[in-house]
Design brief:
It is a single chain. It is built from 13 helices and no strands. With about 270 residues, the protein is mainly α. The chain has one domain.
């Protein structure tokens, strides 16, 4: 268990809600604290990746960082460079090299994610520069999602890989990220986020169990994105002054089983 999970367990033991479970405000404060601390690292990682590739398509950089945050690859500079080069050129040698940076799920999911993204980047028109408003990010995401809702969805472009790139785009603009206080666009709900939402439902903190699975190679429906983002948004109202980006990162810490999670917020 990481620090956020230990503190959540303590809040559950203390109780504070009529139906049982931790006090809502305490949970919000915990998620805000964890999210803000994790995001200090995430903002730096994103800005460094963007700055290291000034001549590359920034969307390619954001997709690559999102892959690593989704725990498909090691977030290392050589990986980012080779993945970005592949997305820009289609060079199979760059894809081979990028796939060597896989984590425990192996090279197959990483390779399929990059190949699927390359196909999408060739068919979806996105702004040349990262949008500087949440509304523009939403419009870009809708174009992207419009290409992957049919039967020809590339493998591994599921709930995380379909949405993480747009979240990372806000990490390149910290002031913009802090203004997101509702579902301006869809944040990725898979993996640790789904597990965290399930914990919060069991503790009577949110209204329903999360929908869908937690793996990007599962079948999925766009409705799952909207259902789970609506559950996340339930946690925003209140005195904690949460924004969706800090909340999402706090949920990630609450749901992850990564052994090094404590080091991310130390």
């Amino acid at each position: 268990m990481n620090e956020i999970q230990r503190r959540f367990s303590e809040l559950c033991k203390l109780g504070g809600r009529p139906k049982g479970g931790p006090a809502r405000g305490k949970v919000q404060d915990l998620l805000k604290d964890g999210g803000e601390r994790l995001n200090r690292l995430a903002f730096d990682e994103t800005r460094e990746a963007i700055d290291d590739h000034p001549d590359s398509d920034p969307w390619h950089v954001c997709f690559t960082v999102g892959l690593a945050w989704g725990h498909l690859a090691r977030l290392e500079k050589p990986f980012i460079s080779k993945a970005v080069n592949y997305l820009g050129s289609g060079d199979p040698l760059q894809l081979d090299e990028a796939s060597k940076f896989c984590l425990e799920r192996g090279p197959g999911p990483l390779r399929a994610s990059l190949a699927g993204a390359k196909n999408l980047f060739e068919t979806v028109r996105l702004p040349i520069e990262l949008p500087d408003s949440l509304d523009q990010i939403d419009r870009a995401q809708q174009r992207w999602l419009g290409k992957i809702t049919g039967p020809n969805r590339p493998r591994y472009i599921g709930s995380w890989n379909a949405t993480a790139m747009f979240m990372v785009a806000t990490f390149a603009q910290p002031k913009l990220a802090q203004t997101m206080r509702k579902n301006d666009f869809m944040l990725p709900p898979g993996g640790p986020i789904t597990l965290a939402l399930a914990k919060l439902h069991r503790s009577h903190t949110i209204s329903a169990i999360p929908a869908g699975g937690d793996m990007d190679d599962d079948g999925w429906e766009p409705g799952v994105l909207y259902e789970n983002n609506a559950l996340m948004a339930e946690l925003i109202p209140g005195p904690a002054n949460l924004n969706m980006i800090d909340l999402h990162s706090g949920l990630y810490l609450l749901g992850t089983n990564h052994s090094q999670a404590d080091s991310w917020i130390s």
